[in-house]
Amino acid sequence: MIGFLFSVVAVLVLVGIALVGVGGLGLKVLFGVIIPYAAVLTFFAGLVYRVVDWGRSPVPFRIPTTCGQEKSLPWIKTNKVDNPCSGGMVLLRMAFEVLTFRSLFRNMKLDYRQGPTIRYSSEKFLWLFAMMFHWAFLVVIIRHARFFTEPIAQWLQGIEHLDGFLEFNLATFGIGLPTIQMSGLILLGGVTLLLVRRIVVPSVRYISLASDWFPLFLITFIALTGILARYVIRVDVVKIKELAMGLATFHPVVPDGISVWFYVHFFLVCVLFAYFPFSKLMHLGGVFLSPTRNLVNNSRAVLHVNPWSYPVKTHAYHEYEDDFREQMIEAGLPVEKTLEEAAAEKAPAAPAPAEADTEVTEEKED
Amino acid sequence: MDTKPEFKPGNYLYAAKASALETVGLPNPRDWNPTDDDWKLPADWKGVVREGIAQRLERFRTFKLFMDICVRCGACADKCHFFIGSGDPKNMPVLRAELIRSIYRGEFKTAGKILGRLAGGRKLTEEVIKEWFYYFFQCTECRRCSVFCPYGIDTAEITIIAREIINLLGCNIDWIASPVANCFMTGNHLGLKPHTFKENAEYLLDDIEEYVGVKIEPSFNRKGAEILFVTPSGDIFAEPGIFTFMGYLMLFEHIGLDYTWSTYASEGGNFGFFTSHEMMKRLNAKMYAEAERLGVKWILGGECGHMWRVVHQYMNTLNGPPDFLDQPVNPITGTRFDNAASTKMVHISEFTADLIKNNKLKLDPSQNDHYTVTFHDSCNTSRGMGLLEEPRYIINNVCNNFVDMAPQTIRENTFCCGSGSGLNAGEYLEMRLRGGLPRANAVKRVAEDKGVNMLSCVCAIDRAVFPALMDYWVPGTDVCGVTELVANALVMEGQGEREYNLRGEENPSYVPPPESEGEAEGEAGEEGEE
Questions:
Q1: Are B297 and B376 within one domain?
Q2: What is the pLDDT, as a whole number, of residue A355?
Q3: B74:A61 CB<8 A
């Protein structure tokens, strides 16, 4: 609960900072230029650092989680996507994972009944909310490219057109709003549903940390302020584009007459960018690196090398035979050395240890 | 996070004995008990843990990544059999991982060091080590949660590494440490010495002679055999595993396979895997070493779950490549096993399925007619390998009555027996029965609806633990290995009447020959009476 309250307060404080900073103190250059540059720099530097940092740790073993039939005998049908037998199939598995959240789609819900009996039912809400949220977020981000490009590319306009197909419907009601962009509403809907789910489902509420609540609230407020700026306050889009183009072309200008609510929106986005690399949001990068998903299940067909492999102490066969030679002979088991040979070898040779530990180099156990 | 586990009889495992740790040279051997206040940790235990974590973050991308990217979406929460059976929130895979993630944040991350709990960080205390011991020995490394995780976060991997870390403090359980020590010295978990191993096999050979009427004389430690066969030692020791063991002997006799057993590499399983990566490597080394010494061409492996996780995903990397072996070819059918081209080890189900497909077995499935069989996919062979169709193909060819359990509980969704990864100790029975509840429930469903009375599997631990689980939750359901079913259906050359099955029970599917005098089969006489 502390995490929940902390996150709400933190986001409200951030909103306050922007309101006071721009509205009260007029720090437009700070909020319009300096913080955005710093945030973007932090984002990219942090992102690269984190991914490289993960990449520096090797993958010593080939341990994909197999979720279907392996490739074995030629007449047995292989599940190529869920148990990939080639690099191409891994790409396919990853594509399904990243683009359609295939693993989440598997989700099922469990209930206890009298008995005790356990039943399973389909549970697609998490998958649905996650799809809404992530895809809408992607479209929203792409749509914002219109502020940073001139002329605006054809494909971008195409996306906007699709995104805004509700326009006609609303126009017929005579509501004079700018084109309604569905993506923004779906994003807000998705993030709200995820938030509600986190509050309502007891097990999920129980596991939630501040770092789970904070990004949800932050993104909720980003979506809210964005929608507010566009539909209610109707911020001066031309001036905002001037500011954005200035940032994009490294000739920053801070036009007058931009609503403070734009700065609030912009500041929260900057916070999100700067926070991103140091948070769980890095699952964006991590999903591509996960060894249980991105490896081919061919560890018996192709050698996988562990870069830090080291020799270990084993109990070699000759040591074993030395321990049990007499019983082995008695039981009629073949031996490498007869009792006499073993005795003869032991007697004249120098004390045995030199010969005893063949494979043993060192036993590393720090 | 603040509720501490309470060590009560039935919910914790006995501590490793000093002697077992000494045998294999593991740190901090001492006699202690988890219910003690003082666990006699080494003086610098905090440093050991910190360094242990740091080193593993550098060595395992899995560990590093899984510490960082969990979003706590909760998809894994109700996927764990121990959570389902115990209701303990810390058995939700996400929280099991948080047990160590919180220390990672609190000890390694700036935000966690400064903000503490607010950033999800905790300080390392002795209580944390006790909690790790409790919960990381309450995970069977079954990977079911990993199937549902959108990032493939694998709690098995986290548990493996966490156990590795507490092993640095000498905190292992007896049920793992003793088999490890046994396996190191005698070649198998049970500590069967070479002559005992052979004697046990001879008892089973006598049983085969009595019940089937066929005398089999396998070889042990024979140089120059074509194939080395390795299977878990549990199957030479206790029911119902021994019937699967008898099945292997009959199958290989039936096809005239040129193979040998080894008393040195007499363990397919690997409890080292439940201790540390290093211990896994130390125990696994025997298989290739023995194959090289005996000069065999390739290795055939018996039915076992974690053994196959190790063989399939680790062995070649650990102790390979075995250049002294040939690519496995089934000498009976000529099939080349391309999927084992590098490791050179083939699963018995792959091997048997190939034999059946090529009509090399003389089968009479009606011998299993009194069984309605279902099949339990072992966690390791399904989620760490993908062996799903082969056993089903075999069962369908040797039995007339086979039904699968509910799709949410088989194949990649399969539920653990509740006792995997070295937790099959007697003192842990309560927790095992809880963990086995989802599996038992699925069996119960098919037992009631479809009349299933035989639970088959390809895992020695399953065979060891399911009888108790079934007795408690689904009385009247028997347990067998797939190869036992094969052996039941095999029409052996020169066999007797088969009036009794391998268990020495009267075979209800036995149909007396029309001429009841029929002693034409030679030695059939001795089967009749007792």
A1: yes
A2: 45
A3: no
